[in-house]
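Q: A small favour: would you put together sequence and structure tokens for a protein?
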Amino acid sequence: MRSIGQLALAIGLAIITAGAAQAQGNPPAACFQQCAAPARSLQANPPPVQACLIRCRAASEFSAQQNQRPLRGPVTRAASNPYSSGRGIPVAASALPATAGQWGAIYAALPPTAAVGIVAGPRDRNIAHTQAESQCRTTARGDCRLLTEFSSGCGSAAQAVRSMSIVPSNHPSTYRVTYVASGTGPSRSDAERAAVASCNSRDPQATCRVVSTACIGGG
């Protein structure tokens, strides 16, 4: 009887959750891409991905409420993603003018493609994003997405890789990239630690390694 009661409670909670999600509607299409969601509906995804989608939707709605003029498509989409900073907070991309200080940006291809583009230093924010995306696209077989942007300190990208060979090697044919994370911080080491921590949290079974780091002012 106890197991039946627990099952009924679980079903009831699932119905309530589904109803709330339906009332709010599905997250924007960009959220499914940024969260690497395997399914195109909120409830059909694993719990960690659902959490990413819900936070992405909330950040997107908040950004829309601010009535901010978007910089351009890819930047606005990634800016609404709470995971794009590598620290679980949204990058408020549209809140700052394009000419304020110096800028850095990190782009990456969707796994298993290993391409990453990182730029730090341009005073024009658009240029930072354009250069980083272009750098990524030179080796990517598909589109590159924004991981994060930063206006001070350093930014770093870390890849979660799983070995496909008995003998460890850095050759791309011997491993598969499962996730790419980013991190920012006041120093190179801080940014790299943040990137690796974010990477480990998404794929604990993989080996996370820093693949690129750049700092505004040289770091």
In short: Residues 5-23, 66-99 have pLDDT under 50 and may be disordered. Strands lie at 104-109, 116-120, 144-150, 154-163, 175-185, 207-215. Residues 1 and 7 are 10 Å apart (CA to CA). The chain has two domains: 26-84, 98-218.
